[in-house]
């Protein structure tokens, strides 16, 4: 029999990991309204933006304005991505509850994405993490390409463990393991997570699956069985995959919610509000969102 | 650790369960060519059509012509759906290797789909099954709405077991349990299958998942862990869902293949040939197929 947790925390990354991969930009005021709607869905964690150079990600150039304008609820953690100390300054100025740093488990992806080798990335992230902690913030870490790299293919578990060791040693609260290009299969998740959980406590690991090959929920199931209770997802499956335009991107919050609630696992999320805020985003983006939930919702309307 | 089979049989239902739910009809000669291509993909089982009244399913009105014109390979089982004795006659005249009957585990769905109560369906199917066997054919059975009914909602395990008992008692070789409207979650699959497998051997049970809510592969994973090795699917996710137009339908053969091969489970299927025959079908249907595999394939081309 499956061994399932009673409760899971869904961390909404749509406003950051979703929007940064959408070609269509949405107005800052709409983004703020959307995040305010997300705050009413029962989510306890929302990653709202990224404090990066707007030259890299023009979709998130309004980071400070968004962070300062949203209505915050005291029981929600509002987080932002920061690539470096300048990003951290922005996030602190905007009074984020949590900041997140990121790097890859694969050398080539790290180089292409951050323009540095893995070993050269550590000295950049270490002060960001430690200054974030000194400022009273919890700091999260994303490890990308844990299950495969678009340039190198296979990524060794040793690389994943090495990067994780370093980041935890700097004081990271939680590491989110990303299947950046959505290639993971359930067996692989079991093998990798089993090794990871020999080394680190399950409470400090989150899984960040993309649904590019349709395996995200099957991968979630394996992680649940291994005791993982933190999962990243993006409402409506927002975001696509930068390496496969047109393909599904982030695991959809609404689809994850469907499966977990059906299995009797508590998430705190409210279905009606989730769908309502996904519809709002569809209007503002001027396109349909790819999640299965939104597909079935649309077919109800057209019936 | 997961307990996984070494080998799985994928039963392709696209030409029947797929095409019958597509509005767009394709020419008989194209259908024949497509099935001939499917025979080159490594599949060992193809359900090619349904011998039903063409008034009900005009898409499959060419059943006899298709069955008589395809090039058959000796190591592939070519099957067809038959609703009644007249259908069986057609299937026997066309020399099908296997025939399949169908009914629902839910009273209302059975009534709407077959126009008979469950108890009135038995006397129709019993002679079909027994005459099929007498003619030297193996007979398969589909049980629909095992995990939920579009009219009644929940379907009791007792109903599923009662229908299964009857069908097996008539000499059915294998029962395929259908999540007709794609609502099943992994926990439910575990609960239902655990009861089913107390009663019937796992070798005689197949699972037929639809991906309407994105849970199909997660459901497959649970079934694999319980020892199930027969799975129905349709190439490219062909078929949609008759109760949710626009939504994903059958679990896609190509996505199932991706997951299983990645997990080291043998299927005998050849990826290149699968994609090639899915592309052919896309051309003839004049539309993109919804599987994740085909989505990522399209994005490779447009890159």
UniProtKB/TrEMBL annotation, chains A, B:
Question: What's an example Gene Ontology biological process for this entry?
Answer: L-leucine catabolic process
Q: Which GO terms describe its molecular function?
A: hydroxymethylglutaryl-CoA lyase activity; metal ion binding
Q: Which Pfam families match?
A: HMGL-like (PF00682)
What CDD domains is this protein classified in? DRE_TIM_HMGL (cd07938)
Instruction: Outline the extent of the Pyruvate carboxyltransferase domain.
Output: 8-275
Where do the TM regions start and end? none
Q: Which UniProt keywords apply?
A: Lyase, Metal-binding
Is the keyword Lyase assigned to this protein? yes
Family affiliation: Belongs to the HMG-CoA lyase family.
Descriptive protein name: Hydroxymethylglutaryl-CoA lyase
What taxonomic ancestry is recorded? Bacteria, Bacillati, Bacillota, Bacilli, Bacillales
């Amino acid at each position: 029999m499956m061994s399932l947790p009673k409760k899971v925390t869904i961390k909404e990354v749509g406003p950051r990991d979703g929007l940064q991969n959408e070609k269509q930009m949405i107005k800052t005021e709409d983004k703020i309204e959307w995040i305010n709607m997300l705050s009413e869905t029962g989510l306890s964690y929302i990653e709202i933006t990224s404090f990066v150079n707007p030259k890299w990600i023009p979709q998130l150039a309004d980071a400070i304005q968004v962070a300062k304008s949203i209505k915050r609820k005291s029981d929600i953690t509002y987080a932002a991505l920061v690539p470096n100390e300048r990003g951290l300054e922005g996030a602190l100025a905007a009074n984020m509850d949590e900041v997140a740093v990121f790097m890859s488990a694969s050398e080539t992806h790290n180089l292409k994405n951050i323009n540095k080798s893995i070993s050269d990335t550590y000295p950049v992230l270490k002060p960001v993490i430690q200054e974030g902690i000194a400022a009273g913030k919890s700091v999260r870490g994303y490890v990308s390409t844990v299950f495969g790299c678009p340039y190198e293919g296979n990524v060794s578990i040793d690389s994943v463990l090495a990067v994780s060791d370093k980041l935890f040693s700097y004081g990271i609260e939680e590491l989110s393991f990303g299947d950046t290009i959505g290639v993971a299969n359930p067996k692989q998740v079991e093998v990798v997570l089993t090794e990871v959980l020999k080394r680190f406590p399950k409470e400090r690991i989150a899984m960040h699956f993309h649904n590019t090959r349709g395996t995200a929920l099957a991968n979630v199931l394996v992680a649940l069985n291994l005791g993982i209770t933190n999962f990243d997802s993006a409402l409506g499956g927002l975001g696509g995959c930068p390496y496969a335009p047109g393909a599904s991107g982030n695991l959809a919050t609404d689809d994850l919610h469907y499966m977990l609630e059906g299995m009797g696992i508590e998430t705190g999320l409210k279905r009606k509000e989730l769908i309502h805020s996904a519809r709002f985003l569809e209007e503002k983006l001027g396109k349909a969102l790819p999640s299965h939930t939104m597909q079935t919702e649309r077919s109800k309307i057209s019936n």
